[in-house]
Write a structure and sequence with these properties.
This protein is of the alpha/beta class. The protein contains 14 helices and 15 strands. The strands form four sheets. The protein has a six-stranded mixed β-sheet, with helices on both faces. The protein has a four-stranded mixed β-sheet with strand order 4-6-8-9. It is globular and about 65 Å long.
Length: 359
Amino acid sequence: MLVSHNLVEANYSEILFEKKPCLDFSGNPVDGLYNAWISLNNPKQYNSYTTDAVKEIILAMREASNDRSVVAIVFTAVGNKAFCTGGNTKEYAEYYAGNPQEYKQYMRLFNDMVSAILMSDKPVVNRVNGMRIGGGQEIGMACDFSIAHDLARFGQAGPKHGSAPDGGSTDFLQLFVGIENAMFSCTVCDPWSAHEAMRYGLLTEIVPSLKVNGEFVANPLVQKQWVNDKGEMVYGKMKSGEALAEAKQMLKQGEVDLELLDKAVETICTKLMMTMPNCLSKTINSLRKKKLEHWDKNKETNRDWLALNMMTEGKAGFQAFNYGLRGNREVDFAKLRQMLAEGKAWNEELIKAISPQYK
């Protein structure tokens, strides 16, 4: 009788946990071997994670890591719009805003979620089924591989909504894309297309997901920029003006199909299966050290700061996003800076003066 090393027997309600048979190179199931699929299940809120979801992800990562029959972990989400847009801003605005002692405990859970990914005994593949923004970008980068469909977008949102990307992006992003690109993404918060993210080194692979007249086509929203030395067309930034309007019309005519994404994920899982398990684990752990050097050094002081920030900019930013009307969900940044330059204190009067929900 084998000993269980799980902390508890988990019952999942916020996420999905499923073991799918491993496939050989011919696509046939391999007896007794599986990939564990852990899926965020909050598509109505773009798969943002609640406090309870974070707890379940920690337990699921631990369960999949301990399972002797599991070869790889696929971390993904339900639907085709978003992998994850970060923490649940409704929960942030309605419970954590103004409660730093509570948010600090929440951030303990968040940190443990990231660490659970980085410390898994199995390789973790991020199946990016849509937007990967904010905390979603951070838990995605904690994974060992990222495979996306090319309608996905990638980026940060913290400084726009009252936070700093200190849940991993300030630790990991420069390791993928270099300091200049990381600085731009983490501060200005302009999103990247999947093609840009691939070119910068953020992703393992991208595949098309839009079908028009039964044929897969590359994301029509991005520009064709140049042909590389292999004769391949390279795509990049989002189109604008009339070209963007035409591309959106093409997008409406097609349908999103994640068949190629699933094939690409299964292929990398098969390739990982065809390796020595302990040698694979040691190699992955050695490479993860580059992330862990930064993560372990900074995660606790970042947690302290993020908690206290919920008394000021975090409180204002998350409540503006939650209570503001669509299209007007950010504080008045210029007015905020003007009031602070005048020496105004952070209080309810200041928050009301800059927040769209009070206009």
